[in-house]
Amino acid sequence: MSKGVKLLAALMDDEVGSGEDLLRAARTLAGAVSDLLKAVQPISGEPRQTVLTAAGSIGQASGDLLRQIGENETDERFQDVLMSLAKAVANAAAMLVLKAKNVAQVAEDTVLQNRVIAAATQCALSTSQLVACAKVVSPTISSPVCQEQLIEAGKLVDRSVENCVRACQAATDDSELLKQVSAAASVVSQALHDLLQHVRQFASRGEPIGRYDQATDTIMCVTESIFSSMGDAGEMVRQARVLAQATSDLVNAMRSDAEAEIDMENSKKLLAAAKLLADSTARMVEAAKGAAANPENEDQQQRLREAAEGLRVATNAAAQNAIKKKIVNRLEVAAKQAAAAATQTIAASQNAAVSNKNPAAQQQLVQSCKAVADHIPQLVQGVRGSQAQAEDLSAQLALIISSQNFLQPGSKMVSSAKAAVPTVSDQAAAMQLSQCAKNLATSLAELRTASQKAHEACGPMEIDSALNTVQTLKNELQDAKMAAVESQLKPLPGETLEKCAQDLGSTSKAVGSSMAQLLTCAAQGNEHYTGVAARETAQALKTLAQAARGVAASTSDPAAAHAMLDSARDVMEGSAMLIQEAKQALIAPGDAESQQRLAQVAKAVSHSLNNCVNCLPGQKDVDVALKSIGESSKKLLVDSLPPSTKPFQEAQSELNQAAADLNQSAGEVVHATRGQSGELAAASGKFSDDFDEFLDAGIEMAGQAQTKEDQIQVIGNLKNISMASSKLLLAAKSLSVDPGAPNAKNLLAAAARAVTESINQLITLCTQQAPGQKECDNALRELETVKGMLDNPNEPVSDLSYFDCIESVMENSKVLGESMAGISQNAKTGDLPAFGECVGIASKALCGLTEAAAQAAYLVGISDPNSQAGHQGLVDPIQFARANQAIQMACQNLVDPGSSPSQVLSAATIVAKHTSALCNACRIASSKTANPVAKRHFVQSAKEVANSTANLVKTIKALDGDFSEDNRNKCRIATAPLIEAVENLTAFASNPEFVSIPAQISSEGSQAQEPILVSAKTMLESSSYLIRTARSLAINPKDPPTWSVLAGHSHTVSDSIKSLITSIRDKAPGQRECDYSIDGINRCIRDIEQASLAAVSQSLATRDDISVEALQEQLTSVVQEIGHLIDPIATAARGEAAQLGHKVTQLASYFEPLILAAVGVASKILDHQQQMTVLDQTKTLAESALQMLYAAKEGGGNPKAQHTHDAITEAAQLMKEAVDDIMVTLNEAASEVGLVGGMVDSIAEAMSKLDEGTPPEPKGTFVDYQTTVVKYSKAIAVTAQEM
Predict the structure, then answer these.
(1) Which of 515, 828, 962, 1027 is least surrounded, with the fewest CB atoms within 10 Å of its CB?
(2) Phi/psi of residue 868, each to 5°?
(3) Angle 530-536-541 (CA atoms, 0-180°, nearest 5)?
(4) What sign does the dihedral 567-570-571-572 (CA atoms) show?
């Protein structure tokens, strides 16, 4: 609070002295809180009245502070009435106390007399407490928590009044005195009722909206009842009577309003709506008579249901504005409460940080708090906007959007807070965090309901609102252009060229994916989701426009600034047309012409979006380089090449030199993408120059060819290099635009490798060196290219799991060992062709080892408990991007005239593997998502991919049978639809709604990677030296010193591989954490055994520092959190090694608080049997967790270790049973003392699960689920009856 006050005071205009006043008010409040804390100190000995007075001044001070910042939302009159009602309760209670004293004077039994005095005193105390409470909360009574406090204080008064009356009745039989007590008590009850009614009226926002409110509410509720009473004709008819009365009230109210209306137009509208309503009511009454006459006839009931539905629609139409006002009002209140509850939870999280023993849980909580803190201002802004412009649709939509955006981060924060509570050692901080999380969960549930209802009421306007937003953006960009022309465009605070360029790059993808959503929704005719997609498109375009303006303002080149603003304006113009077309397409879904128009407009927008990205600094230079490569490559299209003018040796050495330069330039391009935009411009320019030189050298070599066939082959290889070079620049361009894009780094590395491989193929074909020489050169180039993988492995390099990496390292090291022996053996014997082959095999094995080492290092880094574990989204964008790349490469190989039958077959296999993986991912995504449009789109995309794959496979079979030009052409034609289908799917899947959150590697994680990376780098370095040495030995095998150098390198390579294997094995994810956790839980089991022995000998020390309710609450929350972790641990142990360490560490951190709370609860229980039950069940839970950890350690996250999976499943089942047992005991104990919080929480949790949609893979059949539902429904009914 003090931070906020300082900031506000600094921002306020001091002419009026308001900043100083605000600080003064804040100081007064801080002083009042300080006084209260002093008064309640146990050693202060202050009288009770001092405490109450101190509390009252806090209320006054907080009211002053709110007034200073203009936030006193409760009017003075309301507060005055509240205080006078509280005083009325106090006066009535004082009268009751007097009457009770009269009874005490005549009571003969002293015990009974004392009871009356005690009850009267208690009554006086609870009343003074109520008045003090009213003083404290009256300025902030809009908060549900404050309302609850006052209502609780009221209940205490009510209870003390009852006790007082009971004590008086027991003490005397004097009917006259008892009558006076009873009358005084009823005055207190009435005054109390008035007070609470006043508070509740504020809670429901006081004034009913218009005269239709009550009637409309009744109609809505009763029609619901009619729908749910289908089959019970009697009940339906009863409800219909109530409904008829409510509609007749509403019709009368509307008619009288129409008569009083001055505006004739409005009067007509009201009368027409009233007539519509009256007609619907008449139809409903008829249907009700029919149903009453024939209670068994289902058709009549159906007719009544339909008539009620019609009436509901008519009511909605008639009272639409009133209903909408009320719904938006409710949303404003809910949003305010959610923002307040979230702010409280963030404060509680910060307070708990110091004493949280689990850093990983605290880290997660901090992250989720940050995410929520980013959303709070938008939510508050939404509320302000809606309140300021009550009739403005776009303001209401902004509130709905900010509310819906708030729900997900809010829910995440609730779960993070609940997960952190058990490991917070400071009791007060833990209780505060737990309470705040509960309040936030309640506020979010209310916000969810309110925003859904408001969305239904205002939803259809979303498309228009999105259109308005886009038009506004277009005008803003026009203004920015005018400012730029006059050199008046300045960057906003915090905007830099690099930041804005990155924002623009990443947002362009979001725009593309939300447009893909928009097209799909409009094509399916789904109005609700088209509205959502239009809104998301508008949001993304807003960010794009801001970034474009920022780039234009930050760049020093006026022409570039103008181009950027123009292209961004084109994007806005096209987008407005697209949203307009989508709106038209909704009117006639399935109309081929409108679909076609939509697709055309979308293409145009996509084109202008690319133009916009191409205006970014550095991009232009890459485009120039790409153009230059394209121009140079035209030299390869001539029919005949001029004969070479240079001697063969000279041409060959020039080609080798040019190849080395081009390979180095490719590495520089890769490196430059990590630097500033200027670096990439320079690197791509140098690359295109080197490409020119290389091409000339290649054409010179082609001129040396003896036959036409050889020449065609050389030209073919040069074309491949040209294509690979263009791909490298395109990959560099897209990575520099959006460095965070999934898999972009890997695609760039793959493109660089493709350049190296195509250079190697050409060198192998063209040069005539001594055998073995070019193989060595090729190998060195390949090793140079893969070295970059080990620089900073912070994203996955391949799909390999940790255990696949170990297997890959083992296999490749075996191959490398054999080929290294072959290299020295063949160099000795002078068998150079075999020597060359061994070098090639060694190079491939080294590349395989590097890839496996980089992937293993990545997995080790993210599995460190201090690293942030990633969260799986609906789809894995890296998988989609990788499949897209692989399918494109395979299709290219299929249609390449130089491909052999075996290459065609291998390309076909790759296509089949990746398309089936994509179809599978689509199926799972479709079953997981609750969004019906996405559901259908994933299914549709999977069908398109599957069908186009089937067509391609047919043409491949024909090609396999006969490698004719015609068949190859058919194959080429069949690849186009597949590539298009896969690209469309990848664009749709990159929607932020579906994407996973990548893992973040901590500094500890990076340290854990170090041994693997060092070993792999040493291996590559020494292998390069070894190949260079072997190259000179192949020419001159009779050179003893060189042999000893070769032996030295060979020894270093062997050692580094051994150390690589050891490092990977030692760092197996999760193993170390499992060991630590097993030790921790063993210690906890020993503690609980000690406590059990103490309990048996009746010497278990009671914990006096905390109440039994608080202990039960702690125990319940920690057991629930343990229960939530069982399935994630089992899943990680069976096949997600990277997650195992995180989950196991989290589980172990809960056992210390579990034992503390369990022993505490047991120490407070008087019944020895119950005491032992709690301790035994806790011990069983700890033992089952230990069993689980042993099984998880054994499984280690290896999907291939099938023999361990049954043990993991069994251990998980036992652990779930142990959790259930202890929860039953705790719930029984809680219900005995009247605590139902935990049970209400679990019901709320079940309800929120229903909102999440269906699970992806149903385990049983329909009948299994049906039986289970019936069984539990019956059990619920029976228990409810018993209650």
Answers:
(1) 962
(2) -90, 120
(3) 125
(4) positive
Q: Give the Cα separation of 652 and 762 in Å (integer).
A: 11
Q: Using the structure block, give the residue that is written with the tokens 């426009």.
A: 545
Residues 6+ apart with CB under 8 A from 225: 235, 239
Per-residue tokens: 726:
């263009």
Task: State the Cα–Cα distance between residues 795 and 1001, nearest whole angstrom.
Answer: 9
For residue 1239, give both structure tokens.
């049970």
Per-residue pLDDT tens for 462-474? 788 888 889 999 9
Exposure class string for 701-723: b at 16+ Cβ within 10 A, else e: bbbbbeeeeebebbbbbbebbbb
For residue 1000, the SS3 value is strand
How many helices and strands (H and E) does the chain possess?
42, 0
Burial class (CB in 10 A: 0-12, 13-18, 19+), 580: middle
Q: Answer yes or no: are the C-beta atoms of 994 and 875 closer than 8 Å.
A: yes
Q: Is the pTM of this model over 0.90?
A: no
Q: Is 60 exposed, middle or buried (0-12, 13-18, 19+ CB in 10 A)?
A: middle
Residue 1082 has pLDDT above 90, yes or no: yes
Most distant pair of Cα atoms in the chain: their distance: 135
SS3 content of the chain, % helix, strand, coil (to 5): 85, 0, 15
173, 132 contact by CB (below 8 A): no
Share of the chain above pLDDT 70, in %: 95
Q: In a 3-state reduction of DSSP, which class is residue 356?
A: strand
With 70 as the cut, is the pLDDT of residue 986 above it?
yes
CA distance 116 to 852: 83
Contact 1015, 1060 (CB under 8 A): yes
Which residue type is seen at 688?
S
What does the buried/exposed string (b/e) look like for 880-890 if buried means 16 or more CB atoms within 10 Å of the residue's CB? bbbbbbbbbbb
User: Buried b vs exposed e over 738-756: b needs ≥16 C-beta within 10 Å?
Assistant: beebbbbbbbbbbbbbbbb
**Which residue, 529, 509, 1256, 1197, is CA-closest to 921?**
1256
Torsion of CA 942, 945, 946, 947, to 10 degrees: 120
- Of residues 317 and 1167, more confidence is placed in 1167
CB atoms near residue 17 (< 10 Å): 11
Given a cut of 80, whether residue 1207 has pLDDT beyond it is yes
Q: What DSSP string describes 697-717?
A: HHHHHHHT-SSHHHHHHHHHH
For all residues of the chain together, what is the average pLDDT? 84
Tokens for 40, please give them.
């309640």
Tokens, residue 261: 């209306």
How far CA 502 is from CA of 473, 735, 741, in Å, comes to 20, 10, 11
772-786, 990-1004, 1198-1212: the lowest-pLDDT one: 990-1004
Q: Are 824 and 832 in contact (CB under 8 A)?
A: no
| Tokens of residue 750, six digits | 């793959």
CA distance 979 to 973: 11
How far is C-alpha 1242 from the chain's CA centre?
23
- Please name which of 698, 705, 617 lies closest in space to residue 657, comparing C-alpha atoms: 698
Q: Give the distance, in angstroms, between the CA of residue 554 and the centroid of all CA atoms in the same chain.
A: 33
Determine the length of the chain.
1283
Contacts of 840 (CB under 8 A, 6+ apart): 775, 778, 779
Q: Which two tokens stand for residue 1151?
A: 């056992």
Taking CA atoms, 997 is separated from 360, 595, 928, in Å, by 17, 34, 17
pLDDT digits (tens, 9 = 90+) for 189-230: 999 888 888 887 765 554 444 456 677 777 877 887 777 777
